[in-house]
């Protein structure tokens, strides 16, 4: 999610704050700016038995609106994994000729044009795609790709928001939310909670809806490859476009727990103590989706981690999945105060890290839970729990950019 959209540009006519959790890659926005006191000892073993987990939404897709039945879309086809994304400069549409050439590159298994922008949705800044539901579904995680009802709702004019934006951000299923793109504003029904698995794109609508919002057309190209040598494919794509025609970036892969690690540049006891004490000063502040400062009225889970460790001079990347890559992952029984705890709670994108907290020792953690709650200390829970991250300073700085 690093930044597809720049931090100093945003929706025309809408005051855009510095991006928070959804600090999406900083290129699309340039193309569509006018459119749119704790225990710091080693942890004691956890209490036998799992603590009650925070709830996971069971109903992820709204029933088709009876006044406008969900439209038919093509069934799911062969799923491909997007590895590269090209964003055209300015408001330029990616030409048919470039799309055809990319599709002929050896190792490319799929290429799809979409409309990309940053909009304000339910008062939150999000990255959004306008897509052809029949073809784009094959570029998404398997549970999302296979759900016909989800894509019928999108085709009928609904917006699908990411699972995290729905569950943590409080954007309720079947609610109608304001979506602003440029000078245009629409009330759109939330038809699904479903993660697309592409950067930090937190919303998807149909192409027709995107055009109604005034989004740039066909300005983003997603490229999938079965070739393990992604760099070779990237160079081949880069050779097809002039240097100033846009930005080409490699998309983050799904989280690989086996490859996590670091060089052993672990934090000192002083750094840990400083970060923990800093985090504790935010107790009682509201959870704010995308929040990373007092100026925004609160913090989300990864925003709190980034701010707290920054007070100790430790730079972390912005979102939970990237923060989970900043060090070696150890089982809970080996966790120490100052480690970050991670969860993969998203049923629409299995294995992707969707939540993070700061371990305090003694089975307790400091956490920013979700919209409607506040930063607090609570007992560690274990549904969806994937381990503790022992931060490596060098790895963290490299990922922070």
Q: Briefly, what is this?
A:
This protein has 401 residues and is an alpha+beta fold. The protein has twelve helices and 17 strands.
What does this structure look like?
The chain is of the alpha+beta class. The protein folds into two domains: 28-250, no CATH class; 257-400, endopeptidase fold (from Nostoc punctiforme). It is 21% helix and 25% strand. It has helices at 28-31, 96-103, 133-136, 142-145, 148-155, 163-167, 207-213, 230-238, 269-280, 301-310, 320-323, 393-400; strands at residues 82-88, 108-121, 124-131, 159-161, 176-181, 184-193, 201-206, 220-225, 246-250, 292-293, 298-299, 327-330, 340-343, 355-361, 364-367, 376-379, 385-391. The chain has a six-stranded mixed β-barrel with strand order 2-3-7-4-6-5. Strand 15 (364-367) and strand 16 form a beta hairpin. The longest helix is centred in the C-terminal third of the chain and has 12 residues, at 269-280. It is globular, with a radius of gyration of 21 Å. The model is unreliable at 1-58 (pLDDT under 50).
Q: Major β-sheet, in short?
A: 6 strands, mixed, barrel
How far the N terminus sits from the C terminus, by CA atoms, comes to: 13 Å
The sequence of SSEs as H and E is: HEHEEHHHEHEEEHEHEHEEHHEEEEEEH
Strand residues, percent: 15-25%
Helix percentage: 10-25%
Number of domains: 2
Class from secondary-structure proportions = alpha+beta
Strands in their spatial order, largest beta sheet: 2-3-7-4-6-5
Oligomer: single chain
The overall pLDDT, averaged over residues, is 83
**Mind telling me the C-alpha Rg?**
21 Å
Q: Report low-confidence residues grouped into runs of 5 or more.
A: 1-58
Number of helices: 12
Outline: globular
Strand runs, count? 17
